[in-house]
Amino acid sequence: MLNINWIMPEILLTASIVILLGYTVVYSKIGGKFGQRNKIKYINIFVLLTLIPLLVNMIYDISDININIKNQLSISVGVLIIKLIIVLTTLIIMWLSKKEKAEWYILILLSTLGLMIFVSSIDLIMLYLGIELISLSLYVLAAIKRDNKESTEAGLKYFILGAMGSGILLMGSAIIYIGTGKTNFYEISLYGKSEIIIIGGLLIVMALLFKLAAAPFHMWAPDVYDGAPTIVTAYFAIVPKVGILIGLSNLLYICLINIIDEIQPLVLVSGLMSTIIGSIAAINQTKFKRILAYSAIGHMGFMLLGIGVGTYDSFWGSLIYIVVYIIMSINIFTIVLTIYKDNEKEYIGKMIGISRKNVVLGYTVGITLLSMAGIPPLIGFISKYIIIVSVMKSEHILIGVIAILMSVISGYYYLRIIQYIFFKDTQEYKYREVYGIIEGDNKISIEKSIILGGTIYLIMTLILMPKLLTTMTFTTITSILI
Amino acid sequence: MHSVLALVTTFVNTSGLMIMMGIDFLGLLFLIVYVGAIAILFLFVVMMLNIKLVEIIDNTTRYAPLGLIIGIILALELNYVINISVKGEQSISGFNQPVYVDFSELLYGNKETIISIGQVIYTEYWLYFIIASIILLVSMVGAIVLTLKHEENVKRQDIYTQITR
C-alpha cells in the first residue's frame, strides 16, 4: 500500500529543486533585481523553512509505529525527528554562507534530499541510491572553488576514494543478493546466520564507515576538510555524518541483526581506532581545519562505540552525542568562518591574543573547545559520560578505559589552542594579523553572532536542563529500534 | 591501450552472454553504452595523455606482490563462501536456497524484455527510477558548475541576430 503523504517532504524538496534550477538559469542570464545572490540565498532558506512545519506536523500526526512505502522506504517518528535535525542543521549552515553561487545552494539541497532518502531506506538499492545522491553532490561541493589548487585537489581525492567506497558497497549488496535473492532489509534478516550475508554485510558496513571517515578508512578526511572552502567543510563535518550514522544503525539492527556478533567487532575496532587516531594524530597539526578534521574523527569514534556496543543505553548515548556534536561543530565552524578570511590558510597562530582583542569571542572559543574536550560543567561532558558508562556496563572494560585515555590525550590539543588564545603574547609570535578581527571590514556579522550566541547558550546550560534532549533522543531511539 | 581493448572485448563477451541468456535488450544496451561510449572515451583519454610506460611500471610493481596476496585471499574466501551458501552444502534454518525475485509475476504475460522492464520500472520500482534521474541531474549540474567558464573574449551565439539576418 502506497502512502504517498509520508514522503511529502522529499517530494516538496525535489519539486523546489527543479523549480529553483529553472529560476536560477533564467535569472542568471537576465540578472537584475531577482538575480541577486543574496535573494537566491534567502529563497533557498525559505525552501528549507517550509519543510520544518511539515515535518513537525508529521511527527505529531503519525499513528503507526512504522509506515512502509513499497518495502523501499520506512517512516517512523525517529526517522522524522532525524530528518528534522538534518533540515535544521542544513538551514543553519545555509544561513551562515556568504553570497555563494546559485548552484552551491542547489547542490546542498540535493545532498539534503539524498540524506532524507538515505535515513529512511530499508532496501539495499535505495541505500545505494541515497548514498550516491549524497556523495555526488559533496564531490562537486568540495571542488567548487575550481581556481583554487587545494579545493580542486580535495574534490578529486574525495571523488576517487568515494567512488571506491561506493564500489565496495555495491559489491557487498551484490554478494548478499547472490546468497538470498532479496534486497529488502526485513526479508534479508529472515535468512539467519549464513556466511554469504556475513561477507556482504561486512563489505557494506565497511563502505559506510568509509563514508563516515572512521579510522582505518579516514585518510581522505583531513585533506578534503582542509582543501574545501570552510563553509563546505562545515557541511561535510556535520550534516552527512548524522544521516549516515542513522543509516548505519538501521542497517545493523534491521538487516544484519542475526549476524550482529560477527559485525560488532568491526564497528567496535573502527570506533576504538577512530578515538586513538583522532586524539594522537591531531597533536602535531598546525592548521585549525585539520585539527577539526581529526577531532571529528575522534568524535565519530565515540559515536561508533555507542552504536557498536548495541545496548539500548549506548544507542541512546550515541544519539545524544550526535546532537551535542552538531551544536559544538556549528559553533566552532562559525568561529573559523569569523576569524579566517576567505583565501587564507587556517594556521592556529592566528588565534593568538583573541581574548584581548575581542573578549566575548575569546571566551566563546575557549568554552566550546573545553566542551569538545569533555570538561564537566559543559555539554560535551554528558555525551561522553553516557557513552563510556554504557560501554563499561556491557563489559567492554578495556575499550572504555582506552576511550577515556584518548579523551584525555585529545584534551591536549584543545588546551593548546586555548593557550594560544589566552596566554600567548601577540608580540613574540610571527603571526600578527590578529588585529584584523574587530577592526574595519571583518566585523562579526549579525547571523554569525546570533548563531554563536545560541549555540554557546546551549553548550553552557543544556546540562542543567537536559530534559528536551533526552526525551527527544529517547523517542527517536525507541521508534528506530522497535 | 591494449588493456582498454581487452576491456572492450570483455564488454562484448558480457553482452553476448546476456543475449544468449535471453535478455536481449540489456545485452544491446551494454554494447551501446559501455563499448560505444565509455570504452571509446577511455581509448581517447589513453591516446591523448601520452603516458610514459616505464614510469608507471616502476611505480606499480612495488605494490604488486602485496596486492596479489590480498586479492588471492579475498578470491578464495569469496569462492568458499559462495560455494557453501549457494550450492547448499550447509542447511541453515530452511532458508538456504536463494529465491530470486520472480519477474514473470510482475510482467502481466509479456515475454519481451523491453516491455517487461518498462512495465516494472514505471510501476513497482518508480521510486528508484525517479531517484536515479535526480542523480543524473546532480551529475549534470556538477559538470556544468565545474567546467563552464564565462570568458569575455569568446564569440557567442546570438540567437536574435541569427534568425533575423
How large is the radius of gyration of chain B?
24 Å
What would the principal axes of the Cα set say about the shape of chain B?
Answer: extended
What can be said about the biggest beta sheet of chain B?
Answer: none
Mean pLDDT of chain A: 87
Instruction: Return the average pLDDT of chain B rounded to an integer.
Output: 79
Describe the structure.
With 482 residues, chain A is an all-alpha fold. Chain A has 19 helices and two strands. In chain A, strands 1-2 form a two-stranded antiparallel ribbon. In chain A, helix 1 (8-30) runs antiparallel to helix 4 (102-119) and helix 16 (379-393) packs antiparallel against helix 17 (397-422). The longest helix of chain A is centred in the middle third of the chain and has 32 residues, at 149-180. With 165 residues, chain B is mostly helical. In chain B, helix 1 (2-21) packs antiparallel against helix 2 (24-49). The longest helix of chain B is centred in the N-terminal third of the chain and has 26 residues, at 24-49. Chain B is extended. In chain B, 6% of the residues are buried. The interface between A and B is large, with 43 and 33 residues.
How would the blueprint of this fold be written?
The complex is a heterodimer of chains A (482) and B (165).
Chain A: H1 8-30, H2 37-61, E1 67-69, E2 73-75, H3 77-96, H4 102-119, H5 124-142, H6 149-180, H7 185-189, H8 195-212, H9 220-227, H10 230-255, H11 260-280, H12 288-309, H13 312-339, H14 354-357, H15 359-373, H16 379-393, H17 397-422, H18 446-461, H19 467-481
Antiparallel strand pairs in A: 1-2
Helix pairs in contact in A: 1-2, 1-4, 2-3, 2-4, 3-4, 3-10, 3-13, 3-19, 4-5, 4-10, 5-6, 5-10, 6-8, 6-9, 8-10, 8-11, 9-12, 10-12, 10-13, 11-12, 11-17, 12-13, 12-16, 13-15, 13-16, 13-18, 13-19, 15-17, 15-18, 16-17
Chain B: H1 2-21, H2 24-49, H3 53-60, H4 64-87, H5 103-106, H6 113-123, H7 126-147, H8 159-164
